[in-house]
Write a structure and sequence with these properties.
Oligomer: single chain
Number of strands: 0
Structural class: mainly alpha
C-alpha cells in the first residue's frame, strides 16, 4: 500500500489535524505551563502563598494577602527587618509596625547599632513599647475590677 492509498482512507479533517500536528514547532509558545501555574495557584492556600511571597521577597504582595485574608503582617515586617539593612529608616519602616512587642524588645536588646543616634532611636522605641505594654496591662486590670 502506498502513501496515496492510505491518504484516501482518511477524512479531510483528520488529514488537516495531522498536518497541523506535524507542522507544530517547539518554538511556538505553549499555554501548558501557564495553565499549570494557574492550577497550582488555585490549589495553594492563602497562608502558603503568603509565606512563599515572603520567601521570594515579594513583600508588597505578601502584605496584600495579609490584609485580604487576615494573616499576620508582623511576619512581613520581621523578615524585612532581619534581612534588610538595619538603619534609622528601617526602624520606622519595619520595627515600628510590628505589634509583637516582646519580639521587638528582644531585637532592640540584641542589636548593636553603629551610631549613637541609632542607639538612641532604638532605646526610645523600646521604652515606648514598654509604656504601651504597661498601659495595656493597667487597662486590662482596671476592666477586671
Amino acid at each position: 500500500m502506498n502513501s496515496q492509498q492510505s491518504g484516501d482512507c482518511l477524512s479531510p479533517d483528520v488529514l488537516k489535524s495531522m498536518q497541523q500536528l506535524l507542522s507544530w514547532s517547539r518554538e511556538e509558545p505553549s499555554t501548558a505551563p501557564v495553565n499549570y501555574k494557574f492550577y497550582q495557584l488555585l490549589q495553594t492556600s492563602p497562608s502558603i502563598l503568603f509565606y512563599q511571597k515572603i520567601e521570594n521577597r515579594e513583600y508588597g504582595e505578601a502584605l496584600l494577602l495579609a490584609n485580604k485574608f487576615n494573616l499576620d503582617k508582623n511576619e512581613v515586617y520581621k523578615t524585612q527587618w532581619m534581612l534588610g539593612n538595619a538603619n534609622i529608616s528601617a526602624v520606622n519602616d519595619f520595627l515600628c509596625k510590628i505589634t509583637d512587642y516582646l519580639w521587638v524588645l528582644d531585637e532592640t536588646e540584641k542589636f548593636v547599632p553603629p551610631t549613637a543616634e541609632f542607639a538612641t532611636l532604638l532605646f526610645d522605641h523600646g521604652l515606648n513599647i514598654i509604656d504601651a505594654m504597661k498601659i495595656q496591662t493597667d487597662t486590662s486590670t482596671d476592666l477586671k475590677e
